[in-house]
Amino acid sequence: MGRLNNISGKEAAKAFQHAGWNAVGQVGSHLVMTKPGVRVNLSIPQHKELSVGTLRALIGHAGLTVDEFLDLI
Q: 3-state DSSP: the chain helix, strand, coil percent, rounded to 5?
């Protein structure tokens, strides 16, 4: 399994876009993303650094593995 480094919310959103997620709006400092056919919304904090736990949770909600996400970055 690959190692997750602290990345920004902007970089994470770009990686999720490569996986087919689309930004639908922003609530405060969180970007909301959806994917057709998936009932889950991703709420990505637009911070300079995301904690590893937050990033790992977002990856799990998106139905990806850490290695798949690292390939998207």
A: 35, 20, 40
Q: Rounded to 5 degrees, what angle do the CA atoms 20, 25, 26 make?
A: 120
How far is 38 from 6, CA to CA, in rounded Å? 26
Which sign, positive or negative, has the C-alpha torsion 37, 29, 7, 14? positive
- Is 29 in contact with 46 (CB distance < 8 Å)? yes
9-72: what fold? Metal Transport, Frataxin; Chain A (3.30.920)
pLDDT tens, 20-68? 999 999 999 999 999 999 899 999 999 999 999 999 999 999 999 999 9
33 contacts 42 by C-beta, under 8 angstroms: yes
Exposure class string for 27-42: b at 16+ Cβ within 10 A, else e: eeeebebebeeeeeeb
